[in-house]
Amino acid sequence: MKLGLMGDYSNEGDVSFRVRITVENYKEQSGERISNGVINTGDVIVVPVNVPEGTSKATFDLSWNRDWAHYPTSDVDMLIFAPDFSLASWAGATFSSPERAVITDPAAGTWYVLLDGYETYKIANYDLFLTLE
Fold it and tell me: Which of 81, 87, 120, 128 could be disulfide-bonded to 112 (CB atoms 3.0-4.6 Å)?
């Protein structure tokens, strides 16, 4: 987390403030790590994933490291494609880490997770997890 206090040019002298931080809608990563590695700005990585017959829900979680203290946040997006190559979810194309996409009643077969290094300020090490139910 990185907080910044901004004002106009009349902010001369000391400034203080109080902050209360609460965690809401925390998305804990779970499942099996299906891919990890390095992703940079402009990189596109496609990860094939086998979804077996009888799966009622597939949850994809993508996270990456970043040093908020020294660099602006990075943005790595995740798109999920069904076995017929149709776009099944772009829920993982946000400015969050972790990214999460949930597919209910997925068709059996090979799904494709596209990771897009949209903008990274340093090398980003990513982890991709899959939970099948």
Answer: 81
Q: Which domain holds residue 94?
A: 32-132
CA 36 to chain centre: 13
pLDDT tens, residue by residue, 56-79: 999 999 988 765 555 566 788 999
**CATH code, domain carrying 92:** 2.60.120.380
pTM score above 0.85? no
Give every CB contact of residue 88 below 8 A, 6+ residues apart in sequence.
80, 81, 82, 103, 106, 111
Among all chains, which residue has been given the structure tokens 């990563």?
29
